[in-house]
Amino acid sequence: MKIRYDRDTCIGMFQCVDEWDTFEKNLDAGKADLAGAEEVEEDIFELEVPEDEEFEAEFAARVCPVDAIELYDDDGEQVV
């Protein structure tokens, strides 16, 4: 499972931080950071989700009020 995060779209509600520890508050920027993620395009970050954290990652994606977080299964199909 892969998570894709559009940091530019993030409005800093930090709901994702409450759902998954891999998201961290960046109060200086007013946005969340996705720890360990690779920047694949400007302000677009991707990270492979460990199997034991898929549930939390899905909730983090679902609670984002501006849909800045997308989740893809191993076949590349968008889950959230």
From TrEMBL:
Name the InterPro entries for this protein.
Fe-S_cluster_ET
GO MF entry, a single one: iron-sulfur cluster binding
Q: Which domain of life is it from?
A: Archaea
Does Metal-binding show up as a keyword for this record?
Answer: yes
UniProt keyword annotations, A-Z:
Electron transport, Iron, Iron-sulfur, Metal-binding, Transport
Gene3D superfamilies xrefs: 3.30.70.20
> What is the name listed in the Swiss-Prot or TrEMBL entry for this protein?
Ferredoxin
